[in-house]
Design brief:
mainly beta; binds magnesium ion; 2 domains; globular; 1 helix; 8-stranded antiparallel beta sheet; Jelly Rolls
Amino acid sequence: MKNRILTILLLFVSAVVLAQEEPMQMKPEMTEIWDPEVAVVTPGETPMDAPSDAIVLFDGVDLESEWTSGNGGKPGWTVEDGCVTVKRGTGILKTKRVFEDFQLHIEWRSPSEVVGESQGRGNSGVFLQELYEVQVLDNYNNRTYRNGQAGSLYKQHAPLVNACKKPGEWQTYDIIYTAPRFNDDGTYFTPPMVTVIHNGVLVQNHVKLRGPTQYIGVPEYTIEKHGPKSITLQDHGNPVSFRNIWIREL
Ligand code: MG
């Protein structure tokens, strides 16, 4: 009996001693990660200017190095005064390079002479991977359907606000795009995701797309799988201009 009491007492004392043992002491350096060192990028002079790791897609002069028309031929748009302008009826512009995830800077200007209304005024578009349109439209005092105005992911997400400048003024889009990943059956494993900053104002906050942009009907959830694709600019018949286009692959 005495032995049993002694054993119980010993076990109790050991348990108390063990419980009081200090947990491993964390130190600041134990959660610091040093390698590999973060790559250095030299920023542009202003946030509008291309940083050192960007691919300049259009510098205001040379269009043909990076762009073709929709059928792969010479681009049909007009390069003049440091910008490229839609030439009605010549079709889209398309990058020769193809991209997956990226950060894109592009500047656009709707014509100073206001012609048309709603979707007919200064309409163009920046198509991400040829399939997903960020709408370009003159929405300065120009009502249209909210999910089709400037800064919308056309017919899928209205912009959070209307940050349009006056017609004839240069405007900026900074677009952060994550390409979709696919299941074997062609459905999205993760959908395309887009953030858009219009003239420094957040208008799309990491929104998910349901499928490729559709003019009529609901975007398809199931499409053919696609890999890297081009950036394309829309010819909607209005003389919209573009300049200072650069991209960083992510
Ligand atoms: Mg458009």
